[in-house]
């Protein structure tokens, strides 16, 4: 959590997700729809962090040289230690700045990081789960970046918001390392909730009765569930995007969310549709 000596009114905001300039699912749309208003509010103090997908970045990102001295120094330091990055402007409304990490250049430390994740947070990780391996490498790169960034940026407070379990590995690392960053974890739907809803169970009427560890284990997602739960508990602020997901999270992740945040949609773009519907 940021200390009192930093300027909280003039803070830096990072938003961390695996779908930054990389369309996979719904998080991409959430980020894209809120980018314009966030950039208008924060300007160059707002940067999205994500893994680098070179195919999508080639058409979605215009590479730029960072103007923030702390950003420049941090990227330079990581580059010198073998981590490749792409910094630039995301070519969407608002043109927010993005920093994308080439996770492939961090795999030389995967085994070390997996061992550290177990020692630090008690989170296991099987060898054959590529998606989890990607989440671990990305999480360690983000924690590395944030740790270096706050070393170089000594004046302004730093806030980082993380979306979903795939971006959640960095949260227990930030807490354990006491990185001077205020963290927010936002879940849009819990992992275990998705699986339980897909099965033949009376989900919402039995939420309080589930043995969550056993249920996650039966579905082969215990390690992913541990990442999600660890992120929820390590964050300074835990949020969801709906009251029903908040209720779900309280029982499945064992932490009551601190608040419910709207899902980032730019409602002005949809007002014409609503007016048309109202006329009918």
From TrEMBL:
The protein's matches in InterPro entries, at most eight in alphabetical order, are given as:
Glycogen_synth
Q: Which cellular component, as a GO term, is one annotated location?
A: cytoplasm
The entry sums up its family as follows: Belongs to the glycosyltransferase 3 family.
Pfam families on file: Glycogen_syn
Report the enzyme's class at the first EC level.
transferase
Signal peptide residues are none
Q: Which GO terms describe its molecular function?
A: alpha-1,4-glucan glucosyltransferase (UDP-glucose donor) activity
The yes or no answer to whether the keyword Transferase is present is yes
Question: Is this entry keyworded Transferase?
Answer: yes
Q: What does this protein do?
A: Transfers the glycosyl residue from UDP-Glc to the non-reducing end of alpha-1,4-glucan.
EC identifiers of the protein? 2.4.1.11
What are its GO biological-process terms?
glycogen biosynthetic process
- What pathway is it annotated to? Glycan biosynthesis; glycogen biosynthesis
Sorted UniProt keywords: Glycogen biosynthesis, Glycosyltransferase, Transferase
Q: Which organism is it from?
A: Aureobasidium melanogenum (Aureobasidium pullulans var. melanogenum)
Q: Which reaction does it catalyse?
A: [(1->4)-alpha-D-glucosyl](n) + UDP-alpha-D-glucose = [(1->4)-alpha-D-glucosyl](n+1) + UDP + H(+)
PANTHER family registered for this protein in UniProt = GLYCOGEN [STARCH] SYNTHASE, GLYCOGEN SYNTHASE
Its protein name is Glycogen [starch] synthase
